[in-house]
Design brief:
With about 575 residues, the chain is mainly alpha-helical. About 65% of the residues lie in helices and about 0% in strands. The chain is globular and about 80 Å long.
Length: about 575
């Protein structure tokens, strides 16, 4: 390991009062009880929460509690023990507070779930209460520890092989959590898994671990990208041939690829588009009418690679058609125009049935019976066995969509770092200033619409064959709203943020179907909370993060000046 410099300390984060002597041993006792309780039975009924009723054979939720306890143990040893050098860089106390409080909430929800699912607290076995007491002790001890001053994690450098190993461990953890969460059929188990992920992720962020991972990722971009795609490639082999889970994964990839195209329009160019789902539909309908379906209305049946290009070009042309007359307006007016375009597309697809117009789309019935793809003799509809693992039709389409999302990410990243991308950002920040500096505002806006629509059309051509049917009701305004919400939630102008937002907005409704009546309420509350506490999104771009920090500093200066004026007046 290279020599570690003395970590710089930020003066604005003063230390808390000294720790109470009992805090550290109390935390160790809490960790011990949490682990011991997780090896004991939590529930009398073995038919709920994936069977937590067996002593010394922990179930999935108990293993998650053990993982959280081990993370807490590492932080305790970094506070006082053999890992104090690590504690010099991490905000140990804040991480312990998050883990302790979060695991107390986790165990309380476990007990609530057991009592609800099995009709009464009497079915909660002693192991559940032991783990709850351990989590409470851990939380109490953490709040007794002093706060540490903030460190600059960018100064923490380790040998390259250690940083690459950290990336590999992180990607393996992501794969494990994704595979485990998708395999959960019980709603309560899925909710508890989400709580665990939220608690651990928050603790890692608050300790500064994820900040360090971010710097490591910047120093090893190629390794991080390769690791992410390896994890994505291996994912189908963890699902035991489950078509249900792979169908959800495919919907996430299609949604993510489409959102990435919208991210060019909204995140980079700053144009509010509320009818973007129409471009996905244009690609899907193009693939449908050019397919060999008995309901297809066009006699030309080109190869699929040609269909992909035709569908993408049709969507891009529609982007140019809607963009040319409307991009002279901006803001709310542009949003209204694009919203109207999305509805015009949906109604047009429903009217091209031979009665109200040419028979092109079979009207509201759409184009059913679209056959599975067959490229180079490989039939995407047949099951295949690889390394003794069955891969169904959805797994086959998953790998194709993985290639698509890789291409979309490549296009976005290249554009973002190009002169064109900087022109889009300039337009987003101040259109008049950009025009005064010689930026071709109208041309770049039109290019953003065309490229975004092109990428959405690519995703649509694959979606048509995977779904085996297209119809107008698949492309409603609500889908455009969800695409926009994915960008706002994840982080405008970012790649990882948009993919994370797309995953959240597609995965949660599928796994929480019992909560479907309140889905819009839940999404609305989530967006309100995001705008209040993290307006830059879950994964903020550097540009937007700097913007929000500058705004906060300007507000603080203004408040201080106003305070001084009031004091002088008094």
């Amino acid at each position: 390991m290279t020599d570690v410099k003395t970590p710089p300390v930020a003066p604005e984060a003063p230390a808390d009062k000294p720790a109470k002597p009992i805090a550290w041993p109390l935390g160790l006792a809490g960790v011990a009880l949490l682990i011991v309780g997780s090896f004991l039975s939590w529930s009398y009924d073995g038919n709920i929460l994936n069977d937590l009723s067996i002593n010394f054979y922990p179930g999935g939720l108990q293993i998650l509690a053990i993982i959280a306890a081990l993370l807490s143990l590492v932080l305790l040893l970094a506070e006082k023990g053999p890992l104090t050098k690590l504690g010099a860089w991490l905000d140990v106390t804040v991480g312990l507070r998050m883990l302790g409080t979060g695991m107390a909430l986790y165990m309380a929800l476990v007990i609530v779930a057991i009592s609800v699912e099995s009709d009464g607290l009497i079915n909660v076995n002693p192991g559940g209460y032991v783990s709850l007491v351990g989590a409470l002790l851990l939380a109490v001890s953490a709040w007794m520890l002093p706060l540490r001053q903030l460190r600059d994690m960018s100064e923490a450098r380790l040998p390259s092989w250690v940083e690459i190993l950290a990336i590999a461990v992180l990607m393996a953890a992501v794969l494990f959590i994704a595979a485990y969460a998708l395999g959960l059929q019980d709603a309560w188990s899925f909710i508890l898994c989400l709580v665990f992920v939220a608690v651990v992720a928050t603790a890692l962020f608050r300790t500064g671990t994820m900040t360090w991972i971010g710097h490591v990722g910047q120093r090893n971009k190629k390794v991080l990208t390769l690791a992410a795609f390896v994890v994505a490639f291996v994912f189908p082999f963890t699902q035991n041939g489950s078509d249900a889970n792979m169908s959800i994964a495919n919907q996430v990839l299609i949604f993510g690829a489409t959102a990435m195209g919208l991210n060019i329009v909204v995140g980079l160019a700053g144009l509010l588009d509320l009818g973007y789902i129409a471009f996905l539909g244009a690609g899907a309908y193009t693939a449908a009418v050019l397919s060999t379906s008995a309901f297809a209305t066009v006699g030309w049946k080109p190869p699929f690679l040609v269909v992909v290009l035709v569908g993408a070009c049709v969507s891009a042309i529609l982007g140019l058609i809607i963009g040319t007359p409307t991009l002279r307006v901006s803001g709310d007016y542009l949003a209204i125009v694009t919203l109207g375009f999305g509805e015009i597309f949906r109604f047009s697809m429903g009217n091209l049935d031979g009665n109200n117009g040419p028979n092109l789309t079979n009207g509201p019935n759409g184009v059913p019976g679209i056959p599975d793809l067959e490229v180079g003799g490989f039939n995407f509809g047949k099951e295949h066995v690889v390394a003794g693992i069955d891969l169904g039709r959805f797994s086959n389409y998953y790998f194709l969509l993985l290639i698509l999302i890789g291409f979309v990410i490549l296009v976005f990243s290249r554009l973002n770092n190009s002169r064109i991308g900087r022109g889009w950002v300039a337009i987003r920040e101040d259109e008049k200033a950009a025009e005064a500096m010689g930026v071709n505002v109208f041309g770049l806006k039109l290019l953003a619409f065309a490229i975004g629509a092109f990428l959405a059309g690519l995703a649509g051509t694959i979606k048509a064959h995977q779904d085996a049917a297209v119809s107008p009701d698949q492309y409603q305004f609500l889908e455009s709203a969800f695409l926009l919400a994915a960008i706002v939630l994840g982080g405008m102008g970012t790649i990882a943020g948009v993919l994370l937002g797309a995953t959240i907005l597609k995965l949660l409704p599928e796994k929480l179907r019992f909560f479907s009546e309140y889905r819009l309420l839940m999404f609305g509350l989530l967006l309100v909370l995001m705008m209040r506490f993290r307006p830059e999104g879950l994964v903020a771009s550097r540009r937007r993060q700097l913007e929000f920090h500058e705004e906060d500093e300007e507000l603080a200066v203004a408040v201080e000046e106003e305070r001084l004026v009031i004091e002088e007046a008094k």
